[in-house]
Amino acid sequence: MSFNNLYESSRSGPFILAGPCVIENREISLKTASTLAKIADNLGLTLVFKSSFDKANRTSVTSFRGPGMDDGLSILAEVKKETGLPIVTDIHHPEQAARVAEVADVLQIPAFLCRQTDLLVAAAKTGAVINIKKGQFLAPWDMKNAVNKVRASGNEQVWLTERGATFGYNNLVVDMRAISEMKKFDVPVVFDATHSVQLPGGQGSSSGGQREYVPVLASAAVAAGADGVFMETHPDPENAMCDGPNSLPLDKVEALLIRLKAIWEINNE
């Protein structure tokens, strides 16, 4: 799927970004992606496979970050070839943008870096779709500046992702009004259903999470007008190497997507 086709598809119908938080190995990546591809095909939903080659903002210096760019992109390229799914992955430095865009259809800007001008400009210049996660520290209307940085660099293909706001004491809160506010910028808005239930630093040297609330918040966000839903999923979240407590078990994804699709259809009646 080309950049333009993917972006146009996201403007005309619901879409999903899903996959393990971080690339752990080839086997888990391919297993998860192939399962997600079958579910998406059965439901007629556009799905973008998500996994990170490097998680640069882990709570602890000893936390697993991923395989790195070389090995990570190799695995993502194999996933893309084997499943036909488009790919989204994070970048953290401007110099990563062009290289990552050779494999990824969507470059994701992490929430903590959403104001970094050089990163946004470098990502925009690749021509890829740019998914900017709203910083936990920003009001939704402040994201207009991030959108404008991408557009001023010649790229109109922007998604914004709501992932909750800092509430303090290892918790986040979601204001569903943010979806309507960010849609005013004429961009598709995504709801991050799994990071929104994260408890940052909640386990001392790692983050906790309340995955039981993923279906609740995802359903509310779609009802509130979200164009897409982001969710991290893993075949065995209890033993995942990153964000396990807030990841949705892979065997729970299909039921949730059936529910979300029904809400999207009601919205479009």
TrEMBL record:
<comment type="pathway">
    <text>Bacterial outer membrane biogenesis; lipopolysaccharide biosynthesis.</text>
</comment>
<dbReference type="InterPro" id="IPR013785">
    <property type="entry name" value="Aldolase_TIM"/>
</dbReference>
<keyword id="KW-0448">Lipopolysaccharide biosynthesis</keyword>
<comment type="similarity">
    <text>Belongs to the KdsA family.</text>
</comment>
<dbReference type="InterPro" id="IPR006218">
    <property type="entry name" value="DAHP1/KDSA"/>
</dbReference>
<keyword id="KW-0963">Cytoplasm</keyword>
<dbReference type="GO" id="GO:0008676">
    <property type="term" value="F:3-deoxy-8-phosphooctulonate synthase activity"/>
</dbReference>
<dbReference type="GO" id="GO:0019294">
    <property type="term" value="P:keto-3-deoxy-D-manno-octulosonic acid biosynthetic process"/>
</dbReference>
<comment type="pathway">
    <text>Carbohydrate biosynthesis; 3-deoxy-D-manno-octulosonate biosynthesis; 3-deoxy-D-manno-octulosonate from D-ribulose 5-phosphate: step 2/3.</text>
</comment>
<dbReference type="InterPro" id="IPR006269">
    <property type="entry name" value="KDO8P_synthase"/>
</dbReference>
<keyword id="KW-0808">Transferase</keyword>
<protein>
    <recommendedName>
        <fullName>2-dehydro-3-deoxyphosphooctonate aldolase</fullName>
        <ecNumber>2.5.1.55</ecNumber>
    </recommendedName>
</protein>
<feature type="domain" description="DAHP synthetase I/KDSA">
    <location>
        <begin position="15"/>
        <end position="260"/>
    </location>
</feature>
<dbReference type="Pfam" id="PF00793">
    <property type="entry name" value="DAHP_synth_1"/>
</dbReference>
<dbReference type="GO" id="GO:0005737">
    <property type="term" value="C:cytoplasm"/>
</dbReference>
